[in-house]
């Protein structure tokens, strides 16, 4: 497993933490970082839950020089701690700190993304191996019983299980499913949508995934339901495989497509969908055009991942689909991520036998960093309903 054998670079003992927490004159880099943090009401070595507590004298320098990459890596190495990283991140983003601190990793990514297709068909399998194949035990402990690894719908829900079922039901109703329909799920994960739709709406589903672990475990969860998993990249899908589909759904996969491939993605979807069909796209997005990537997330969590903007999606699909509905419930991802974090922490005494302490800090930072970004409304979550020729008489979003 990818991160199991990576040792901690720095672990502070209780005694060293006590010693380092004593008041002392701030170094120049620490003072500069504190000046930036003041606008977000975050204190270095403060006593509030969202304050940073530094354990290494070079922490501030590392963050200032490497931006988000330095922030995440120094946390993984045990150089700093914070009781509520999610709130620290939310406050920092609302204050625009991520735009003020130098981020050479982002500049390098933009250059590479301009010159190369980082989401090419050959590279598409990388995220499957490095993220989705980490271990079904990890995801099973963290996720709900349907194994839905995407934003839940919390309008009337009070638990992760209820929020994920509400999301799956909302998708089914938006797609206006009826028994006997044939559905294509692009990026099906462990089959959460397919199982729910087959159980509750009597449809047949074919799902595409680039993760061996997801495909094998998903088949076991599906049992005798009319569900089929295909270990394939979406670009390999043509109508000749199965004919055209009544409906297409893609939940939490578009973040791996990349701007150089957006038009091809929608072209594939259009070719696979019947003229009177509907396509629901569920994706995280960014507020404006631009890079749409965090260097730390790209390096450690989702290799080759990139977030789209509304304009980029609209540009890519405008000559292939009518945009019938666009629904933003990004604030619900904050609640979803915090629920995942709660379950991950509760399961860690069992998981720690299979994953390293550095992995724990990496995964914890990932969940809380993302929760904070959605709380600050820096990231969005959209559901798009698209129709090849528009819906006769107009489309109406179902009552929620």
Automatic annotation (TrEMBL):
<dbReference type="InterPro" id="IPR003333">
    <property type="entry name" value="CMAS"/>
</dbReference>
<protein>
    <submittedName>
        <fullName>Cyclopropane-fatty-acyl-phospholipid synthase</fullName>
        <ecNumber>2.1.1.79</ecNumber>
    </submittedName>
</protein>
<dbReference type="Pfam" id="PF02353">
    <property type="entry name" value="CMAS"/>
</dbReference>
<feature type="region of interest" description="Disordered">
    <location>
        <begin position="1"/>
        <end position="28"/>
    </location>
</feature>
<comment type="similarity">
    <text>Belongs to the CFA/CMAS family.</text>
</comment>
<keyword id="KW-0443">Lipid metabolism</keyword>
<keyword id="KW-0808">Transferase</keyword>
<keyword id="KW-0949">S-adenosyl-L-methionine</keyword>
<feature type="compositionally biased region" description="Polar residues">
    <location>
        <begin position="9"/>
        <end position="19"/>
    </location>
</feature>
<dbReference type="GO" id="GO:0032259">
    <property type="term" value="P:methylation"/>
</dbReference>
<dbReference type="GO" id="GO:0008825">
    <property type="term" value="F:cyclopropane-fatty-acyl-phospholipid synthase activity"/>
</dbReference>
<dbReference type="InterPro" id="IPR050723">
    <property type="entry name" value="CFA/CMAS"/>
</dbReference>
<dbReference type="InterPro" id="IPR029063">
    <property type="entry name" value="SAM-dependent_MTases_sf"/>
</dbReference>
<dbReference type="GO" id="GO:0008610">
    <property type="term" value="P:lipid biosynthetic process"/>
</dbReference>
<keyword id="KW-0489">Methyltransferase</keyword>
<feature type="active site">
    <location>
        <position position="370"/>
    </location>
</feature>
């Amino acid at each position: 497993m990818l991160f199991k054998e990576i040792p901690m670079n720095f672990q502070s003992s209780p005694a060293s933490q006590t010693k380092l927490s004593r008041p002392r004159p701030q170094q120049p880099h620490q003072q500069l970082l504190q000046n930036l943090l003041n606008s977000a009401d975050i204190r270095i070595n403060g006593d509030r839950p969202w304050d940073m507590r530094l354990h290494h004298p070079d922490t501030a320098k590392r963050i200032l020089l490497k931006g988000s990459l330095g922030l995440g890596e120094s946390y993984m190495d045990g150089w700093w701690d914070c009781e509520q990283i999610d709130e620290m991140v939310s406050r920092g983003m609302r204050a625009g700190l991520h735009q003020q601190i130098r981020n050479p990793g982002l500049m390098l990514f933009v250059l590479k993304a301009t010159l190369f297709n980082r989401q090419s068909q050959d590279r598409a399998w990388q995220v499957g191996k490095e993220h989705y194949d980490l271990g079904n035990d990890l995801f099973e402990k963290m996720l709900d019983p349907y194994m839905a690894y995407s934003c839940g719908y919390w309008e009337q829900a009070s638990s992760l299980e209820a929020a994920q079922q509400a999301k799956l039901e909302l998708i089914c109703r938006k797609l206006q499913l009826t028994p006997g329909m044939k559905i294509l799920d692009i990026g099906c994960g462990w089959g959460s949508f397919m199982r729910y739709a087959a159980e509750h709406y009597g449809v047949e589903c074919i799902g595409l995934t680039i993760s061996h672990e997801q495909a094998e475990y998903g088949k076991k969860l599906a049992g005798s339901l009319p569900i089929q998993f295909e270990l394939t990249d979406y670009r390999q899908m043509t109508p000749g495989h199965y004919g055209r589909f009544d409906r297409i759904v893609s939940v939490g996969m578009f973040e791996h497509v990349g701007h150089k491939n957006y038009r091809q993605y929608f072209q594939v979807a259009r070719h696979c969908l019947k003229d009177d069909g509907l396509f629901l796209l569920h994706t995280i997005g960014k507020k404006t055009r631009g890079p749409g990537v965090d260097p730390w997330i790209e390096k450690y969590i989702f290799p080759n991942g990139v977030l789209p903007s509304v304009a980029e999606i609209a540009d890519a699909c405008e000559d292939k689909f009518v945009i019938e509905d666009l629904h933003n419930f990004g604030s619900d991802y904050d609640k979803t991520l915090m629920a995942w974090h709660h379950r991950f922490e509760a399961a860690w005494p069992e998981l720690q036998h299979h994953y390293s302490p550095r992995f724990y800090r990496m995964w914890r930072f990932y969940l809380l960093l993302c929760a904070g970004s959605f709380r600050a409304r820096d990231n969005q979550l959209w559901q798009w309903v698209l129709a090849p020729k528009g819906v006769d008489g107009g489309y109406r979003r179902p009552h929620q």
